[in-house]
Amino acid sequence: MPLLFIKKSSIRIKCKVMLLNLLTLTFFAISTVNANDYLSMIELSSLGDFEADFSEVKTVTYMKSQSLIGEVSYISGENYSVIFPFDVQRISYQVNNGSNVNKGDTIALVQGYDVHHFIDEYYSTKALLKIQEAHFQTNKQYFENKTIKSSQWVDITKSYYEAKLNFEHIQHQMSFLHIDEDEKISFISPETGVIQIPNINGSKKSGQLAFNIIDDKSIKVKVVVPLLLASNLSHFEVDSTCKLEITSVEQVADKYHQILWAKSTSTHCSMTLGQVIKVTPIKRIQAYKIDKAAVFEFENNNFIAINSNKKLSLVLIKLIGATSDNYIFTTEGNIEEKQALISSVSILQGYLLRMGVE
Prior knowledge:
A hairpin with a 2-residue loop joins β18 (about 295-300) and β19. It contains 5 helices and 22 strands. By secondary structure, it is of the alpha+beta class.
């Protein structure tokens, strides 16, 4: 008997819950219908004798985002590096760091015990190659005539090519050097571009970097951009006269950010290697803009009122940005070149609130 009572009570509770849900749905349905009734079309005369001015809704394809920081730099590997081929006790740079140099320009004067030793090594490897080459050519005829053993020819060939490789290696290093009549030795630039001089405080050892040459075309702006913004970017702006075109996007993200590289598209952008600048990202969008006075809030949503044959059609909008005078927004449907109410908007808002109360 108690079990039967519990089952009947459970059934009554379930019925009450279902009835409550049905009443709730019915209430919201009626509310929605009523809202749609008075949000569809409103007679312009409802504003009374108040002035009604309108402004044209215009399309927007670009929008500025929050400013970011960019660094004037270059992609790793695009620099031409010149290293010390010998230990240097003293170096005197003849150009300023960051200045433009031409191929063959004197970059620095060098002094040290190993400097002249390197020059002597160059001439000795050159002379040795000449001897080995003559020995190679002579024995080549003997080998072809089969007057020497193959093992002897292999040793002669090996010695010749080793001497040739040693000379070519040191000759390449010599291409960065110049020796004047007074036997003063200087570094010269192998390329035309911007020079980058490293900070050298201690000893200057063989194999260390002497300087970099960066081609002007390789100098770009590195910008770290949030991932959500990177995919829709069109370009960057430094100011009204300086625009940066995006040239490459690194496909490896650093947590929530991505690195973009951009370069100047005009001669008005004055930038220095290593400089930090403020850039404004410009996003590609499909949206509209309207005078700020046209936008009003009703029932926790943003609307504008479009004029249509002396009637106002309320259009639900989603704000996505703003300028000094306009709001940028999206909405369903095409309202390009439509006329939106920009005066007496508060009167319309009050009218809607009264209708909502009634």
